[in-house]
Amino acid sequence: MSVSLVKPVAYLSKVNKAKAHLAIEDLEQEKKVLQKAMVTAKNNGLDPDSVKPLFSALMETAKIIQYRYQKNHLNTAQKAGDSPVKTLAKIRLEIAESSDLLIKALYQILHSGVGFDETSREKLIKIIDQPELSNIDKELIFTALRAVKLKQ
Description:
This protein is mainly α. It has seven helices and no strands.
């Protein structure tokens, strides 16, 4: 199962935004990401309305991770050898690419008839197991993932 693509979308910018002192929440950008995901889903054989809850859940959990990370590391100075801060444009490009890959992987999984079951839940939980996420956060993603369906 190719749910490993969920992780880059959620974690890509957690460190970089903190280092660059960028705002975590950008509602206009979130709207754009959601609209693009729905169009990409439609163009790739998925019901666009069914991916909306998944991408909303991914964005919400990504914000949770970033807020909790910043809270826990607010006073931590950047160490020598830390990777350089990525630009906001670069982060957004990487998130968009990961989102497209996720949609294509979801189509392949659903088109093959595999779907998402209890084994899938266990694999997903391992993939997104981050200290900043609660079990409820993880369940939110899995529940939204299970709701994704093929376009009629």
